[in-house]
Write a structure and sequence with these properties.
CATH topology: Alpha-Beta Plaits
Radius of gyration: 13 Å
CATH class: Alpha Beta
CATH architecture: 2-Layer Sandwich
Number of helices: 3
Largest sheet: 5 strands, antiparallel
């Protein structure tokens, strides 16, 4: 059976970072907390450099653990930075509408 997807919207606070830097920081933090974490569904779907916001896709059972890992990040790409979680959504369309489009 296919695992249900969730999209976590976040905002980068602090230093500049690209997609690769963000994914390395998240991957390292997850591995530190739980080496058995399944990273198969983990993917950075969207990252806008100008608004500093992005969407991360994961499985519905991984949301809690991933939120904790993302909140504990203190450095990204060797610079002091953190990720603030804006919210979680079940579909990509709703996540973009709720968290990424300026009101």
């Amino acid at each position: 059976m296919r695992q249900r997807r969730r999209y976590i919207a976040f905002e980068l606070i602090g230093g500049e970072a690209g997609k690769g830097d963000i994914m390395r920081a998240i991957g390292y933090t997850i591995y530190t907390y739980n080496p058995a974490f399944d990273r198969g569904m983990l993917k950075l779907v969207f990252h806008d450099v100008s608004s500093r916001r992005g969407l991360l896709r994961c499985g519905h059972r991984q949301v809690g653990e991933l939120r904790v890992a993302m909140a504990s990040i203190k450095k990204i790409g060797g610079r002091k930075a953190s990720l603030v979680i804006l919210g979680v959504s079940g579909t990509l369309r709703a996540a973009k509408r709720k968290f990424l489009v300026p009101a």
